[in-house]
Input
Amino acid sequence: MNFSLGLLAAAGAQKLSLPQIWSLATAEAQIIIVILAVFSIFAWSTMAAKALQMHRAKKLNHHFDIEFRRQGGVLEIFERRLGIQGCPLFSVYEDGCTELDARLNKADGTRKTELSIKSMEHIKRSLEGAVARESLKLESGLILLAIAVSGGPFLGLLGTVWGVMDTFGGVAVKQKADLAAMAPGVSAALITTVAGLLVAIPSMFGYNWLLHSLRVVTVELDNFAQSLASRMETEFLRDE
Output
């Protein structure tokens, strides 16, 4: 506590700087701040990586959708054996066409020209599974932002409560409860709450924006899967 009073006296009428507040913080508070700093690094890295992934996915989806609508037959792109990495629409298309191609091939090496309703239902389920898989790929990593949003403030609050408790414990030992004795310790305790909020607030905005982008892409995938299934039915479904 004498060390705290010395720092306060040296600061005079000026505010305590961040290095001074850091030196006044307890070891527990410093550990929590370091943990929050690691959380912040992971959160910003995740936001940057997912933003690039979403941007690339939307761009590739747009170009693939234009190319797909130009094709006369549903299997034209598939038969060219193209590979488009990072394009969710193409992954859904490839899975659906792979299942369709397998259903059209006969055991003797010839190909069918029509499919039954049962075969089309299998293809639709394959498309639904592809949409779910691509949505999960885009969603992966968002849990880190959710943890930062919900856990950051609580970790900061834990450090603050711990620091205030330590400050009051020191006041009880010294039996001196004036502002000069309490202010440095309380300031150092509150810095953990600030650190928690600095982690949680950007993560909250990033998480909500990424979640909205994910929903948009998921709707696009659903609509494309339905459109693809309709074209397959138009070209290959047998009238019964």
